[in-house]
Amino acid sequence: MFKWILRGVLALLAVTVIAVVFALEPIAKFMIEHEGSKQVGARVDVDSVDIKLYPTHVALNGLTVANPQEPMRNLLESEKVSADVDTKALLKMQFIADQVVLSGLQMYTERSTPGTLDGKLPPAKPKSDTSLPGITMPDPSALLAEEQATIQAEVDAIQNGFSDIQSRWQSKATQLPEQAQIEAYQTRWNELKKKNMIERIAGAKQLRDDIKADLKQFKTLNEDLKADSAEVKSLTVRAANLPADQSKRMLSKYGLDQGSEGMLRFLLGDEVNAVVQRGLSLYQETMGNMAAKETAPAEAPTELPVKLLIRQVLIDGYQMVGTEKLAYSGEINDITDQQDYWNKPITMALRGGVDQKSQLVIDGIFDQRNNTMKSVFNMALKQLALSGVSLSQSPELPLQLEKGFADISANFGIDGDTLKGSAKGLVNQAKLLVANAAADNKSANLLAAALEDVTKLVMDMSVNGTVNEPAIKLKSNLDSILGDILGAEIKAKLGEVEDELKTKLSSDYGPQMAKLKEKQNILGQYQELLGDREAALQALMKEMI
User: Fold this and answer.
1) H helices of 110-178, where?
2) Residue 269 — φ and ψ, nearest 5°?
3) Which segments within 187-277 are labelled E, that is strand?
4) What is the DSSP letter of 486?
5) Residue range 287-309: average pLDDT?
């Protein structure tokens, strides 16, 4: 009987173990997709998950992470992600591994279905009705609609600045010596003058000390008044200049502030913005998010003060550049959500090229040891043969780099949220092609003819601002060519857009700004009050000499 019972228990254990092993993988797949999508704000999909126990090995097959900024593209996709992980750490919600292998990595690939969480495409941005032949100009109303929150935030900041200063001085005014106290000082002095010399000298000393203490307070208040008066003046100027400043900011943000010097950016603006935003999205969803440290819950103590600890990630992948397959491999080292644990930054190094040539070098450092992520990224690409690279998707002027040899260098730094960087590109033996320029569009045909004679393309891009609002400037040797053809006409149209923006801003926010400008004298009464009471005390001090 005991033998049968033992066999039954062993059989039950075997069935339980098998059930757990087979159930782990679909549960893990669901959790990765569900939690990953929630964190990224876009779909995270996995074809399958393989899990082996003792030692615990996890592999994600067919991982794709959609770009929340571009629903029809992926931030990245990988054929396989695998690692041996610490089982005990997993039970404590920690991911600890000596090495993770990331195979078949690709960036910014196209999707067949939207990567939004609800599976629907967001509504398309309104198109402009105002256009220069061959070039579409932005609609000021659409720009204002997109920027309304930012503009209102500036209005609120000015309003709050005035309110804070006014509140401070309402409080400080209650700390001033009252008129009754000044009169009491005068009464004390009048009484002292009636006494003998010894009593008068002793009493006068005490009275002077009391008055000096009050005058010292006036000195501090006068310094505060001077600083706050300067701030009031600054806020008043901001209120007066809001329409002009905000229109310039918007033109700069959308690449429309460079006139004929930025003609290539004008033609390629959407594509340039997309490239920069993809890189910043990838940064925010990987390294950038690690700067937000979390404290482990008190009820779940862990052996190590981390949730993520990976000594090395080995990477191999490729990127299609036109018709060329640019392969690369490398590593990312010392990844953790608590960099103080190792007291060294995350580092990245990738190398690659076409047909095993050494053409691509990428290095990066991501340092969050002082609670603020500081990142430096460098890239160099030499003599990459390009063909069939689309530069502009404009239906009126579709511009393509048919062939050429590119040398590109880039350097970017991010300190917290502040962004600064540059990229330089040189394409020799270039052949630009404008495919099917609008036949009835004189400007487009003039541009097409000019571009077909170009054999060298030189580009210089600078990026400043913040991670969420990068300010991009792009110059090139094409600027003078394109500027000669369309520069004057574009400047005139841009002037019209800027004038309309200013008019709309003045109409929408003018009354608010006028009321705020009236506050420029809010400190006048306090300045007068300080002056009168300080003068009274100074006069009394002179009388006592």
Assistant:
1) 140-173
2) -50, -50
3) none
4) I
5) 53
| Interaxial angle between packed helices 488-517 and 140-173, expressed in degrees from 0 to 180 and rounded to the nearest 10 | 30
Catalogue the E-assigned strands of 21-69: 44-52, 57-67
Q: What span, in angstroms and rounded, lies between the C-alpha atoms of 181 and 190?
A: 14
pLDDT tens per residue, range 58-91? 888 998 988 888 888 888 898 998 888 777 776 6
Give the span between the Cα atoms of 384 and 401, in whole angstroms: 13
Cα distance between residue 311 and residue 492, in whole Å: 57
Angle between helices 197-253 and 140-173 (to 10 degrees): 170
Q: Say which residue the tokens 């990738």 belong to.
A: 350
CA distance 197 to 206: 14
- In this structure, are residues 412 and 432 in contact, taking their beta carbons and an 8 Å threshold? no
Dist CA 472 CA 253 (whole Å):
7
pLDDT tens-digit map of 153-188: 888 888 888 888 888 877 777 766 666 667 776 777
Claim: this prediction has a pTM higher than 0.70: no
Q: What's the rounded Cα separation, in Å, for the pair 513 and 246?
A: 13
Burial of 198 (0-12, 13-18, 19+ CB in 10 A): exposed
Helix (H) / strand (E) containing 533: helix 524-544
Which among 427, 185, 453 has a CA at the least distance from the CA of 321?
Answer: 427
Contacts of 64 (CB under 8 A, 6+ apart): 43, 44, 45, 74, 76, 77, 109, 111
In this structure, which amino acid lies at residue 278? R
Amino acid letter, residue 260: S
Q: Tell me how far apart the alpha carbons of residues 213 and 185 are, in angstroms, rounded to a whole number.
A: 13
Burial of 102 (0-12, 13-18, 19+ CB in 10 A): buried
String of DSSP letters for 90-106: HHTT-EEEEEEEEEEEE
Q: Give me the residue label for tokens 């929340």.
A: 68
Per the CB < 8 A criterion, the answer to whether 122 and 89 are in contact is no
Q: Report d(CA 275, CA 265) in Å as an integer.
A: 13
- 439 sits in the region (left: phi over 0; alpha: psi -120 to 50; else beta) called alpha
Neighbour tally for 2: CB within 10 Å: 6
Q: What's the one-letter identity of residue 14?
A: A
Cβ burial of 412 (10 Å; 0-12, 13-18, 19+) is buried
Contact 310, 392 (CB under 8 A): no
- Predicted pLDDT at 378: 93
Which helix H or strand E contains 240, and what residues bound it? Answer: helix 197-253
Q: Identity (one letter) of the amino acid at 143?
A: L
- 350 pLDDT above the threshold of 90: yes
Token pair listed for 211: 């008055």
Measure Cα distances from 432 to 109, 265, 358, 389 in Å: 24, 16, 26, 10
Over the stretch 191-234, which tens digit does the pLDDT of each residue have?
777 777 777 767 767 777 776 776 677 777 777 778 888 888 88
Burial-class residue 278 by CB neighbours within 10 Å (0-12, 13-18, 19+).
Answer: middle
Cα-only R_g, the chain: 34
